[in-house]
Each structure stands twice: as C-alpha cells, then as structure tokens.
Amino acid sequence: xxxxxxxxxxxxxxxxxxxxxxxxxxxxxxxxxxDPAGSAPVRVEGRMFPTNRGGLCKKGWTSxxxxxxxxxxxxxxxxxxxxxxxASWDEALERIASSLRAIRAADGPDAVAVFGxxxxxxxxxxLLGKFARVALGTSRIDYNGRFCMSSAAAAGNRAFxxxxxxxxxxxxxxxxxxxxxxxxxxxATMPPxxxxxxxxxxxxxxIVVDPRRSQTAELTADGAGAHxxxxxxxxxxxxxxxxxxxxxxxxxxxxxxxxxxxxxxALRRSVASWWPERVQSATGIPVALLRTTAHxxxxxxxxxxxxxxxxxxxxxxxxxxxxxINLALVLGLPGRPDSGYGTLxxxxxxxxxxxxxxxxxxxxxxxxIADPADRAAVxxxxxxxxxxxxxxxxxxxxxxxxxxxxxGVRALxxxxxxxxxxxxxxxxxxxxxxxxxxxxxxxxxxxxxxxLADVVLPVTQWAEEEGTLTTxxxxxxxxxxxxxxxxxxxxxxxxxxxxxxRLDAPSEWPTDPALVFAELARASAGGIADYSGLxxxxxxxxxxAGVAAHWPYPAGSDGTPRxxxxxxxxxxxxxxxxxxxxxERDPEAPDEEPPHGAATDEGAQSALxxxxxxxxxxxxxxxxxTRRVAELTDAQPRARAELHPATAARLGxxxxxxxxxxxxxxxxxxxxxxxERIRLDTVFLPFHFADAECANLLTAxxxxxxxxxPEFKRTTVVVAAxxxxxxxxxxxxxxxxx
Length: 738
Ligand SMILES: Nc1nc2c(c(=O)[nH]1)N[C@H]1C(S)=C(S)[C@@H](COP(=O)(O)OP(=O)(O)OC[C@H]3O[C@@H](n4cnc5c(=O)[nH]c(N)nc54)[C@H](O)[C@@H]3O)O[C@H]1N2
Ligand SMILES: Nc1nc2c(c(=O)[nH]1)N[C@H]1C(S)=C(S)[C@@H](COP(=O)(O)OP(=O)(O)OC[C@H]3O[C@@H](n4cnc5c(=O)[nH]c(N)nc54)[C@H](O)[C@@H]3O)O[C@H]1N2
Ligand code: SF4
Ligand SMILES: [Mo]
What we know:
Blueprint: E1 2-3, E2 17-20, E3 29-34, E4 42-46, H1 58-61, E5 77-80, E6 83-86, H2 89-107, E7 112-116, H3 122-136, E8 141-143, H4 150-160, E9 178-182, H5 186-189, H6 198-202, E10 206-209, H7 215-218, E11 225-228, H8 235-248, H9 254-260, E12 261-262, H10 264-271, H11 276-283, H12 287-297, E13 303-307, H13 309-312, H14 317-330, E14 340-343, E15 362-363, E16 367-368, H15 372-382, H16 396-401, E17 411-415, H17 419-422, H18 426-434, E18 438-443, E19 455-458, E20 467-470, E21 476-479, H19 492-502, E22 508-509, H20 513-524, H21 536-545, E23 575-576, E24 606-614, H22 630-635, E25 640-643, H23 645-650, E26 658-662, E27 667-674, E28 682-686, E29 700-703, E30 710-711, E31 715-721, H24 725-731, E32 733-735
Parallel strand pairs: 1-22, 7-8, 7-17, 9-10, 9-13, 10-11, 12-23, 13-14, 17-18, 18-19, 24-28, 24-32, 25-27
Antiparallel strand pairs: 2-3, 3-4, 5-6, 5-19, 15-16, 20-21, 24-31, 26-27, 26-31, 29-30
Helix pairs in contact: 2-19, 3-19, 3-20, 4-14, 8-11, 8-12, 8-14, 15-20
C-alpha cells in the first residue's frame, strides 16, 4: 500500500477563510478571521449565502470558542490501570493495531466494528467506509445518521428511487403560498431558515404539525397559518386522513397521478376507511381543521410538504414519511417548479454522510454493497478483488446491541458520534461499551463516549481542516482551513492512513483531502449520488463565482439543483405510491411497556405520561461540544422537563422543582419547566445532557423494521416530584387525559 502526499496541515493558513458553521445541515456561511488578541483564535462573521443570508444562530456565533478551549484534547490517551493517561501517537496507534490484529485473528473481521457520524466531511466519511471494508474487512459499520435521517431516506428511496433531503434549493421556499411542516421545530433547530418561511406566513399558509406548541408552531399565530397538535405518534393517521380528503373531495391532480406515478388504485383503497371523524378520534385534530388543511394544500399556488425528526424518529417513521410523500404525490407537488416535498436533513453533513459508505449496506455514491455491479465498480477504484469486500452489516441499534456479546463485537472504533448520550437505552449502550475489549474514540474533546474508551485520539476541528460537506439542499460546499491545528492533533485522514499501513491493508490511503475527494468522485461515478464532475479546485472556482453545485453532478454536467422535473429515479421514471397503514403495536414497543409500579389510582402522586425528546436552540445533539461553550451553558445549564401546569399541579410540582421521570429502563432527574405549550399527557426532555439528565436513559432500543430508526419520540414514563418518587410508585400512577 502507499500513503499519499503530506497532509495539508503543512500549508500556511490564509488570512481569512470563507467557510461554514460546524454544526447543523443548514451550513450557514461564515468568514473566519484570525484574532490573536481575542478570546477565541478566530473571529466569526456571518456571510451572505442562499441558505442563511448572512444570519447565524447562537451556536454559530459561539462556534469558535471550542477551538482553543482548555478542554481541547491535544495528545492521545491510553487507558492504563483503569485511568486514561497521555501517550505518544506511535504508542497509541500501535496499541490499536496490535489489538485489532489479535481480535481479528481470534474471532474474524466482524468482531471489529466502526461507528461513524453525520458531522464528518465527505472525505472522512468516504475514507472511514473504505477503511472498514478494505483495511478491517468488516461488514459492521454504521453511524449516528441512522438515528437521524434513516426513515426519511428509506421512504425517499422507495418512493422516488433517490434520497436527497430537499430535491430543490432552500430558497425555492421563499415563494411558497403554503408550507406543511411536520415534526420540525426550525425556529430552534435552524433559525436562519425562518426567513424562507416568511412568504408562506404572509400568505397565511404556514401549517405546523407538532404535539407541542413549539417556537415554530408559535409562528402560525395571528393569521400566519395553523397549528395542528396531534397526539404524539399519530401523524401517520393524520396523513392518511388528509390524503383521504384530497381524494374524496376531488382535490387530487389526476393527470400527474396518471403520468408520473404508479399505484394510485392501491393507495385509494388504503386510505378509503380513514374518514375524517375516525382520524379526529385517533389524532385529536378536529374534522373542520383537517378539511381546511387539505383544501389549503390543494390551493395550487406553491405548496411544500416538509418533514423533520418529530415524525421520522418513530418505529413507524418510514411509513409516516411515506404517507407524507403519498400526500405530496396525490397533490402533484414533487417536481413542480413552485412546489415539492422534502425532509430537513439534520447534521452538518447529514446528507453527504449518508451517501459515501458509512451505512451498513452501502458503498460510495449511494451504491449498494449487495449489488455485484456496484461492488465491482468500487473495488476497481480501490484496486481490490470485489470478492474481498464484506457484505451488508447491521444498522446502528442492532450494532450497539452486539457490543461485548458472544459472537458479537469485541472492538469498536468511533468517529464523530457520542453514542452513550444519543443512542436509545443509554444504560445498555454504556454497558456494551464497557464490555468491549477495545474501544477507540477519535474526538477533539473528551466526550461522554471518549471517557469510556481504551484509546482516545485527538483530531482536528472544522476551522483547521479542508474538505467538503453536502447541505440539506444537496449542495456540495467547501470547508476551509482558517488556522493551524494545535500541535499534537492529527486529522482523521492521517489516522486512517496510518492504521491502514500498520494493518498491511491493500489500496491507497491518501491524506490530502483534495486527493481523497478525487478518489471519492471516481468511486461515485455512475452511482446515484454521483460527484464525479467535481473537485476541490472546481468547487473553489464556483464558490468565487457564486455558482452552486448540487448532486447528481456527473462529469460533463452542471449539477442538479432541482430533481424530478422530468422523471423520478426509478427505471421507469415514475414515483411509487406505497400504501401504508398504522401497524399493530409491537408488544416490545415502549408504549406498551408498563413502567414499574405504574397503575391508575385516585390520589396518585405520579402520572403516566408520554415522553417526547428533542432539542433546545442553545445545544447541539449530545452536547459534547455546546456543553463546553460558556455562553451556551449559561443560557441552558441543565435539562428541564416541560410539563403542563395542570399536570404539574396535580402532582404537587411547582416551576423549577426537581422531577423524576422514570420507567423500566432508567430514571432522569430534571427541573420542571411549566408551560402551556405542551399537552396534558406529555412531558418533553431535551436529549443534550449527560448523567442523571440523559433523556436516552428512558428510550427503548426498538427500531423501525425498514429503516432501523429507534423510537425517540414516544416513550411511556412515570413522572413525579423528585423525593416523592417512592410514595408515587406505591400509590400508583394515574394516566393524565389529553
Ligand atoms: N439547536 C439545535 N439545532 C439542531 C440540532 C441540535 O441538536 N440543536 N440538531 C440538528 C439535527 S442533527 C437535526 S436531526 C435537526 C432536528 O430538527 P427538528 O426535527 O426540528 O428537531 P426535534 O427537536 O428533534 O423535533 C422537532 C419537533 O418534533 C416534535 N415532535 C415530537 N414527537 C412528535 C410527533 O409524534 N409528531 C410530530 N408531528 N411532532 C413531534 C417535537 O415536539 C419537536 O418540536 O436539528 C438540527 N439542528
Ligand atoms: N432521545 C433522542 N435521542 C436522539 C435524538 C433525539 O431527537 N432524541 N436525535 C438523534 C439525532 S437526529 C442525531 S443526529 C444523533 C446525534 O448523535 P451524536 O452522535 O451524539 O451527535 P453529536 O453530539 O454531534 O456527537 C458528535 C461527536 O463527535 C465529535 N466530532 C465532531 N466533529 C468530528 C469530526 O470531524 N471527527 C471526529 N472524530 N469527531 C467529531 C463531537 O465532539 C461529538 O463528541 O442523536 C440522536 N439521538
Ligand atoms: S442554524 Fe445551524 S448552521 Fe446555522 S449557525 Fe445555527 S447551528 Fe450553525
Ligand atoms: Mo440528526
């Protein structure tokens, strides 16, 4: 094997760099200017760009704080006698390589697994997928995007034959008359995106579907639109009901259905019994509101349907996203220049991260690892025999369930994920990580997962590296280097190349991001997510000229800002209407599991509620990064459990009191935040916090059978004032009516 050119860390940094925020998929544009006298090494300014129009949220503004944080890791760490101690790179890498060799020799390549992340650049994600298949020979690779985009991806693939979050530029939303936003709280999760909703609000057409009156639902007030507040997890029925009304009231686009879709008859039959009164009783949404919503969507002056994690992170998330697509197709929206359907991708590279080989069944370019032609094409680029490539692995929830199990996983390499906070059933995840023979975590801070590792490797941060990311609109953008990394820190590309060499891996392992991208482009040629017409140099020239690059971008093309104008990606060019129905509740599903000591009783001091989890504006994901930024933790220092004042009053809980939220899996303690934004029968916890405040102590490791998405948004819990938990459990818990 050969290791490529010297890493780009040898280059002198530019005076100012035009780059993008390290956090979410909106990838707001910013300019970083070195600021030796400042509290952070660079000054952050918002930059004009179509997605953010110069705006940034609080997380973006404060993103430089972590670059020179005292909590930054700058040396490898090795666990010795129970504690982590500093080590040299050579010692750390040799410890990893020798352990991997021994485990592989004893138990075969699948005893080693890899867990990636949707925040990794395309270059890192690509090289990580290649490293797993070529250097480790393991089938067991998956990533945290499984917890994020998997349901929408599965639904998009089966309906359209392709999975690109928004098949149109974000700025297309500006001219919308009506936007149906299901399970997405963009006011907190992508604030600069709100400017693109202004047109629909002015037209009175922003319709938000959320069991909470979220900050985004609040934007529908004063005639700007409507807030539909269904019981958690009943969106599928709501969508079947809306589709029923569209078909029954003659609002469907018949020509479009005839010319562009397959399966309308079966779809019609599947929604026939979902008449509005039945939907009202299942969801709680009044019939009149169902009707006005369906008619508004069919008004035909620019209608968009968008989904977020609130409808996707369920055991039936794929079917719910499919029902949203069916509604869009019946209305004839996808592919129309003024209308469409899309899902809002979450992580910084949530889109690109799901295209280039981190998924268990995938090769670069969104190719299928089980497809002989796809295997042959990628193996040719890698210079290996296709028969040496492993087959499909298992999705993330299943992978985490195999840690330390007999015949399961003995060694895990984690790149860009903090699974002990963000995976469902966090106690079980932690136990699995502790049962491993080798846990290696690459990170730039000692994340909660890194704290459990046997070896921790310190890596570069966003402002110190070159690369590309693919935004929520399928646009490939450049991450640019603004300053040199601290000494002692290496890029993941260097780490993977070094380990590949120590493991005597075949193929080439370039470490220059531009060369890795060039290889990625070749490997993706002819795939669904084709990047073969692009290079770092071309992207830089386009950036300077203000030209956008959206995939598919095959060699010789100018890219594809809008998909589906002529055809969908299935061989016959037509979209599939896939009939879906609410499933019989799985007895394993969290809803059905009686929490310890819970029963219905008069005078109960605890209540059986549905737990919803989600996000706060100030924190990002597991909080590994944002819990280390003073301005953000000052604003949101700890988890607060949102409760309706009436529910709280019944339980004797006042605002700010500590409450215990528990079930058979775990117990979370958080201060009460009383708010009428939430239903009487639900409690909301953010999932950004650790230890006793970790919301995923309560969620179950049950997953959507199609996508592998865990159930993050609907968990049955018992809530009581902390301290009165024992009494509450003895007295039993009363179910609170909606
Ligand atoms: N501040 C901040 N911004 C972020 C992130 C972050 O961690 N913090 N993460 C980024 C990432 S990776 C992602 S994926 C996105 C996620 O962005 P969103 O999808 O906006 O985030 P969530 O808060 O998980 O869920 C959105 C809403 O779904 C609602 N919801 C819960 N259950 C249901 C249900 O059954 N039905 C319906 N209709 N709604 C429901 C919740 O009440 C919540 O208001 O945000 C990105 N941006
Ligand atoms: N209960 C509940 N759980 C959830 C969700 C929910 O709504 N509710 N949402 C889910 C969703 S949508 C998502 S996306 C996941 C997020 O799941 P996590 O994996 O927890 O996401 P992050 O907190 O972003 O973790 C990324 C880690 O990688 C590090 N990191 C960042 N960039 C790099 C890099 O380039 N290289 C390396 N090696 N490390 C890097 C960060 O410091 C951090 O420690 O959580 C999921 N979990
Ligand atoms: S909206 Fe997302 S990309 Fe924009 S500044 Fe905030 S976290 Fe960064
Ligand atoms: Mo996400």
